[in-house]
Amino acid sequence: MIEDTGTIDIKTINEKIEKESAFVDLLTMEMNKVIVGQKHMVERLLIGLLGQGHILLEGVPGLAKTLAINTLSQAVDGTFSRIQFTPDLLPADVVGTLIYNIKENDFSIKKGPIFANFVLADEINRAPAKVQSALLEAMQEKQVTIGDETFILDKPFLVMATQNPVEQEGTYPLPEAQVDRFMLKTVIDYPKMDEEQLIVRANLRGSFEKVNPVVSIKQILNAQKAVREVYMDEKIEKYILDIVFATRYPEKYKLADLKPLISFGASPRGSINLANAAKCYAFIKRRGYVIPEDVRAVVHDVLRHRIGITYEAEAENVTSEDIINKIVNEIEVP
């Protein structure tokens, strides 16, 4: 597959990507000082960071979600802020507000916690719609308006929102259109027994290693540019589009049995993010070209929140995960 592309010099791209992605191992090692296991979550955070996207993490409390993004911000030498979402939160608590200054007889701007490289939106589904939309405007536009002034947010800008799947009392579920703004939705599970043993030991000793900044903001920004240069063959593009179109028109892909289970399929944003995430995954694996395995590795995280399931599917206990599995198993790999 790679030999056909004589016009595009894969070898040069590969060498460039190998050089640019050298920091990935350093960053992972630094995070592993504090984060035990959870390899999947750490990888997804890196994909979000390199792909200039945002991540929605779902998992029960106590799985090191907060710790992970905090550790990442320390290892990247970026600024970190955490917003604990509550039902009485106001948009001004997130983006900032105008404060009247008596001495100056004028308004001054007090910036909110959104002005950071890494923002943890803890339990995003606990805040009312106004606050959610203030955060999502910042995520989408990468800018914030306070009063009549607009501020461009610092780069890189990564929002990691968490939601607790267990408790539904006093929550405001994110509407589909807002969930779609997240590049990835990652579901985290409990650690393995031997990993948890290490976590318990480290906590009882109270001796976590200090995380040092091993990557500069400049390196991350260069890496974000380099990711775009990762080569994607037309066959891989077609493979991505087949997967996305199968969520919309399953009957055209010999998957007619899925038709009554899907209320809506993935949007073009799904295709863009799937291609982008596959490139980021190839970059993390230090390759200058995308292979079908890269697409398969990220497809669940990119599409699980972009497929609507019908009441019929719920009645049959079919999840969007099951639908993605069926599609990926049916569609021919290039």
Automatic annotation (TrEMBL):
<dbReference type="InterPro" id="IPR041628">
    <property type="entry name" value="ChlI/MoxR_AAA_lid"/>
</dbReference>
<keyword id="KW-0547">Nucleotide-binding</keyword>
<dbReference type="Pfam" id="PF07726">
    <property type="entry name" value="AAA_3"/>
</dbReference>
<feature type="domain" description="ChlI/MoxR AAA lid">
    <location>
        <begin position="260"/>
        <end position="327"/>
    </location>
</feature>
<dbReference type="GO" id="GO:0005524">
    <property type="term" value="F:ATP binding"/>
</dbReference>
<dbReference type="InterPro" id="IPR050764">
    <property type="entry name" value="CbbQ/NirQ/NorQ/GpvN"/>
</dbReference>
<dbReference type="Pfam" id="PF17863">
    <property type="entry name" value="AAA_lid_2"/>
</dbReference>
<keyword id="KW-0067">ATP-binding</keyword>
<comment type="similarity">
    <text>Belongs to the MoxR family.</text>
</comment>
<dbReference type="InterPro" id="IPR011703">
    <property type="entry name" value="ATPase_AAA-3"/>
</dbReference>
<dbReference type="InterPro" id="IPR027417">
    <property type="entry name" value="P-loop_NTPase"/>
</dbReference>
<protein>
    <submittedName>
        <fullName>MoxR family ATPase</fullName>
    </submittedName>
</protein>
<dbReference type="GO" id="GO:0016887">
    <property type="term" value="F:ATP hydrolysis activity"/>
</dbReference>
<feature type="domain" description="ATPase AAA-3">
    <location>
        <begin position="54"/>
        <end position="184"/>
    </location>
</feature>
